[in-house]
Amino acid sequence: RARAVIGAPEVLVLIAQAQSAGRGRAGHIFYSPPGGLYLSVLLRPEIGARQAVGLTAMAAVAAARAAEKLCGTPIRIKWVNDLFVEQRKVCGILTEAAVGVEEQRLRYAVVGIGINVAPPAGGYPAEIADVATSIYTQPPQTEIRNRLAAEVLRRFQPYAEALPLKAYFSSYRERLFVIGREVALVRGGAREMVQVLALNDDGSLHVRRADGSMKDVAS
User: Fold this and answer.
1) Potential cystine with 22: which of 6, 32, 139, 193 (Cβ 3.0-4.6 Å)?
2) Is the pTM of this model over 0.85?
3) Structural contact between residues 194 and 183, judged by C-beta atoms closer than 8 angstroms
């Protein structure tokens, strides 16, 4: 984001071997020990603020395809930004953007992708040990992270260049594992259980509430 503010060009990519202050959605901590792949991509797409969620979905599809190619394990998506292997999280994606107030269009977006490549030394912290896993059960060969980064970017860039086209969208929908399931909507201190019926074309979820009424959920 600092590079973006001072005019760095589009498709600047920064890669870290570890993060001391990794962040997820809603201010959550993203555990980022050595051995994972942590990369951020700077984009300057000519899209409206409401379309920015598509960047996260694009990155999810690109990362899933890249990781599957290298590890051979099927990878699913938990709406909107997490990748899972057998009900455990292997990747988190966070898109942050600067929006022009008057024109309501993006000035820039930074898409951050964090992938658990192998289990960290000493295992995962107790608070995430039951929900986190990695795409490899043992540390892979040293060049794997380089290959994984290249595969992610090779798949992501064509999507980003094709905006606002949605070539990625059918693949995103196919990988989504929340459709048909009961999920919790959390807003502030309120928690509501709903059933997910479908993914809308704008990336929101169409859900049925306990009273039978329908609603669309954007976050």
Assistant:
1) 32
2) yes
3) yes
